[in-house]
Amino acid sequence: MAEIQTRDLADLVRRPLVNEKATRLLEENKYTFEVSPKATKLEIRAAIEQLFDVKVIDVNTYNPPRKQRRVGRFLGYKALYKRAIVTLAPGDSITLFPEV
Questions:
Q1: Cα–Cα dist 84/48, whole Å
Q2: Alpha helical stretches, state H, the chain
Q3: Which CATH number goes with the domain that contains 43?
Q4: With 70 as the cut, is the pLDDT of residue 3 above it?
Q5: Which of 18, 70, 73, 99 is deepest in the core (most CB within 10 A)?
Q6: φ, ψ dihedrals at 30, nearest 5°
Q7: Which of 38, 41, 42 is nearest to 11 (CA)?
Q8: Greater confidence, 56 or 6?
């Protein structure tokens, strides 16, 4: 297995996803993130643990299909992304909306 470079871990996690399903999963201590399409589950686990200082129990990933988009007569595709649902240990949490 390849060594995970700690300096590259921050680039794997792009942003947290906040939608209806992700909000429901927050009650089960599961957080949803958009990650790099080439990121593996082990790399995602290491990145979340390093960035947020929490203990990750499980990582589930999902690659949604690419969607076609048309601009005039030109046909293209939306950018690829990967979704990761991260389950945290009981007692751990991530503050997605810091209070100002």
A1: 11
A2: 20-25, 41-52
A3: 3.30.70.330
A4: no
A5: 18
A6: -115, 135
A7: 38
A8: 56
The answer to whether 88 touches 31, Cβ cutoff 8 Å, is: yes
pLDDT of residue 84: 97
Kindly state whether residue 64 falls inside one of the protein's structural domains: yes
SS3 77: strand
What range does the domain containing 31 cover?
7-88
Quick check: pTM over 0.70? yes
Domain count, the chain: 1
Q: Is residue 1 part of a domain?
A: no
Picking from 52, 56, 16, the residue whose alpha carbon sits closest to that of residue 32 is: 16
Cβ(82)–Cβ(43) below 8 Å: no
Q: Using DSSP, state whether 52 is helix, strand or coil.
A: helix
- Pseudo-torsion of CA 23, 7, 65, 59, nearest 10°? -50
